[in-house]
Amino acid sequence: MLRLVLLGPPGAGKGTHAQVLSKRWNVPHISTGDMLRQALRAETKLGLEAKTHMEKGGLVPDEVVIGIVGDRLKENDAKQGFVLDGFPRTKEQAESLDALLQGQRMPLDLAVYFKTSLSVIIRRLSGRRICSQCGKTYHLSNFKSKVEGICDDCRGPLMQRPDDRQDAIENRLEVYQKQTSPLIEYYKKKNILEEVSGDLEVPELSASLKELFLRKKLVGC
Ligand code: AMP
After folding, report:
1. Is 41 a residue of the active site?
2. What pTM value is reported for the model?
3. Which top CATH class is 2-119+167-215?
4. Residue 70 C-alpha to ligand 1 middle, in angstroms?
C-alpha cells in the first residue's frame, strides 16, 4: 500500500519514476497530464476544453482536473494505493485531494519533491519526444527509439509535445513557480514532505527513492 504524490517542475522525472514505482508497488500511476493528452487524442469534450490551456503551458481549470482525479481515485485499483504525478498543482487541488482522501480514510503517505536545476529541466524538455498514437515518452539523447522518429511499441510517429517548445516551457516554469511550488511548504507543514534530487539520472534516482522508502519504513520497495 502506497499513497504517494510526486511534486516538482516539468522535466524533473516525475513521470518516469511514477511508472517505475507503480510497477514495483503494483499501484496505479495516475498522471493528469497523460489523462488530458489521451482525452485530446480522442477529441473528447474534456480534451477540447483542455487543449488551449495545455498548448500554451497554462493550467487546466481546477474543477476539471479535480473532477477527473476524483473519478479515477474511486476506481477499485486505487484502493490499494496510487502514485499521483502532476496532481495536485495548486493549493485548491491539494485541499480537494486531502478532503477526498480523508473522506475515504486513506491519507497520503508521502509527497516527494524532485528538486531539479533549470539547466537539467531545459535539456530534458527540449529533447523529449512522445508517440503521437500511444503517448510513450522518449528523449533524443537519453532514451532514443530503436528506429528514429518511430515508437518502439506501436510504430506510431514521434512528435514534440506542443508544450515542450521554448515559449510554452517558459510559461510552464512560471506557472510552476507561482502556483505549484507553494505546495512544497504545504506538505512540509503536514510533515509528509521528502526531497530527492531530480538532477540524478534514472538508476541513481531510483536507488535514492528506494532508500527513502526503506527509511520511511514503507514496505514493498
Ligand atoms: P504534465 O504532463 O504533467 O506536464 O501536464 C501537461 C499539461 O497538462 C500541463 O501543462 C497542464 O496544462 C495540464 N495539466 C496536467 N495536470 C494538471 C493539473 N493538475 N492541473 C491543471 N492542469 C494540469
Report:
1. no
2. 0.92
3. alpha beta
4. 16
